[in-house]
Each structure stands twice: as C-alpha cells, then as structure tokens.
Amino acid sequence: MSVTKTLFDTMPDGAPVHLFTIENDNGVTAGIITRGATLQSFCCPDKDGKNGDIIMGFDTVAGHMASGTYTGNIIGQYANRLCGGKFSVNGKEYQVTQNEKGKTCLHGGGEFNSAIWNAIIIDDDAVEFTYRSPDGKEGFPGNLDVTVTYVLTQRNELEIHYKAVTDTDTVINMTNHAYFNLGGAENGNVLDTELMLNCDYFTPTDADSIPTGELRSVKGTAFDFTEGKKIGRDIDADDEQLIMCRGYDHNFCVNGEAGKLRLVAKAKDEKSGRKLEVMSDLPGVQLYTGNFLDGTETGKGGVKLQQHYGFCLETQYYPDTPNHPDFPQCTFKKGEKFESLTIFKV
Ligand code: GLA
Fold first, then answer.
1. Is there a catalytic annotation at residue 314?
2. Binning pLDDT at 50, 70 and 90, where does residue 229 land?
3. Backbone phi, then psi, for 17, in 5-degree steps?
4. Share of the chain above pLDDT 70, in %
C-alpha cells in the first residue's frame, strides 16, 4: 500500500491543486484531487490484466471548472435538488441559491465541488479531506465542518467516509458524483453495461426533476433493475419519466434498512470484464446516465463526451427531502455528528 502526493494543476489564481494517489498491492489506484475532493481516477485491470481508468472526467482543472458534469466531485451541502431552493428547519424558512433554471437548487449551488479542500495522508491507504462550509454560504444555515476520507483496501474497495458537524440545526446531504465507464475513456457509451440495482421503488419527478412524493414500484416498468439488465435495454421506453429526462436521472430507494451498510448496485461490462459493486448506508441512489452530455465537452485523452458516456450512482438522501416529511429525513442538530459510508468495489 502507498499514497503519493503530486501537483495536479493550478487554479486560475495560481493556487496549487494536489493529486493524492492511493495504490494497493493489486495495482489498483485511486486518484483524488483537492479541488472538490474529486475522485479523479480509479484504475483497475480488465480481463486481460490491462489497467484502465473507469472514471469519466477531465485532465485539467480548467476542464473541471468549465464543466457542468460535477464528475467525481464531492457534492454538498445538499446533493441533488431542493424545490424552489427552499426548505425549513425548526419552522424557519431558508432560501438557498437557485442555480438551476433560476428555480431549483442543484448540488448545493456548487459549493463543495468547487472548493479547494485541505488534505492530509493519514495512513498508507487513506487520505483525509476537510472543508469548513461557512454559515450562510449559498444560503445554508450553519458552520459545517466536513471531513471526507478516501480509503483503498486490499480487497479493491474504495471507501468514502463522510463526516460533518454543524453549529446550527441544518440539512446535510453529501455524495460523490463519479461517472463510471467500466470500459475506459475510449469505450464510448455505457448502454451495454449490465446494471443491477437493489431497489424495488423509485421516486418519480415533475418536469423540474423534483420528486412528486410518490414511491413507485419498479415492477413491470423500465425502472426495474432488480434482476440486472443492460442500462440501454429500456432507456428509450415510452415512459414519460424517461422521456422528460432523456434517460435515467432518478432517485431509487435502496432496499433494506438505511443507516446499515448494504448492497446498492452491481455493474459489469462484458467487453472489458470489469465489475463494480456499490454499497452504502444511505437511503437512496441517483442513477444518472449522462443524458445531457452532447459532445461539447472534451474529457480525458481528448475524448468528446457524448450522451450516455458514463453512469452515476450517487448515493444520497432522496432529492428535496426536507420538503417531504414522509421521506427519511436529513436534518441534523447542532453538535450532532453526521456520518455515512459509501463503497465502490472493483
Ligand atoms: C445529477 C442530476 C442531473 C444532472 C447531473 C449533473 O445527477 O440529477 O440532473 O444535473 O447531476 O449534470
């Protein structure tokens, strides 16, 4: 096991952005950069032993900054959407940044993913990233001290440990927004990737991608991944939810008890033979199939990022949770510890 620290790139003002690379004894590596505590790369062998990077992304900070993809970023203070950018805590209404169509708040207004995080190597397999989100930033209450620790194990598990403490009651929802392409950057789209989701229900949305509040059974719909199927099998089905979003961009309710680590998803790419398993203690997972990529952004190795060139499995509290009292809640009290774990295993 080893961790190395190198200079990845610089910010426009010249500030350094460092890259931490954790390597295990199987030659699997995870690279994380300090801008957005971003998972920059995750390399593992294919069926012929050839190492390849399964994270869609960018070679430079400028690439990340110009992009609307959030690829590999840590997202917060509230991952996914808040209707009207509004929510209440203890009866007090807060208005946060409406960075999507001037209506919804998407991904916390882009706060955590564009911050430069402090980072230290805490072991030969682990790097700890910290960030203080000041009270009122993007409109969110509370000084929030956030710690995200990436650990790569000898079992090829990349663990992402999330911790946060607030000094004011507030909402917290964090995720990692990696886009996976198990065949690597040159692979093209991910429609042939087999995906199994351990999810019997999903949360349909309105036209602004805000959950209607319904938990809909996936049975007999294009949203049924319980038995495993190719991502592309039903993506063009005549289903208003898919048509509206140009593919999957939905929160699925993970089976089993939230708060306990359990299987979320399994993916497999036949061609490369690479596999991915996702585990988490969070209640939901957003399956996003890169629907809005349109070739205008150039990713790693000069590849134009086209529609469906990656898939995201963003473990999370359900979108817009504070406005749906029936959803598992994510309001945390002053001094209370937020803790969560998501694992990507290759
Ligand atoms: C999430 C959202 C999508 C999209 C991506 C980033 O997955 O649900 O609608 O905004 O982030 O492009």
1. yes
2. very high
3. -115, 115
4. 100
Specify the residue for token string 């069926």.
47
Answer whether 85's CB lies under 8 Å from 105's CB. yes
State how far the Cα of 142 lies from the Cα of 94, in Å rounded to an integer.
Answer: 12
Residue 168 exposed, middle or buried by CB count within 10 Å (0-12, 13-18, 19+): middle
Per-residue pLDDT band at 273 (split at 50, 70, 90): very high
Both structure tokens of 203: 């949360």
Assigned token pair, 57: 């992304």
Probe residue for ligand 1, chosen from 67, 70, 71, 316 as the CB with the greatest number of ligand atoms within 8 Å: 70
Which residue type occupies 61?
V
* pTM of the predicted model as reported, rounded to 2 decimal places: 0.98
Residue 98's pLDDT band, with cuts at 50, 70 and 90, is: very high
Alpha carbon distance 181, 274 (integer Å): 10
Coil, helix or strand for 210?
coil
To test ligand 1's pocket by mutation, which of 81, 103, 106, 177 has the most ligand atoms within 8 angstroms of CB? 106
The single residue of 64, 107, 177, 308 carrying the catalytic annotation is 177
pLDDT tens-digit map of 144-172: 999 999 999 999 999 999 999 999 999 99
Distance of CA 198 to the CA centre of its chain: 17
Q: Residue 47 is which amino acid?
A: K
Pocket of ligand 1 (CB under 6 A): 68-70, 80, 106, 209, 249, 286, 288, 292, 312, 314
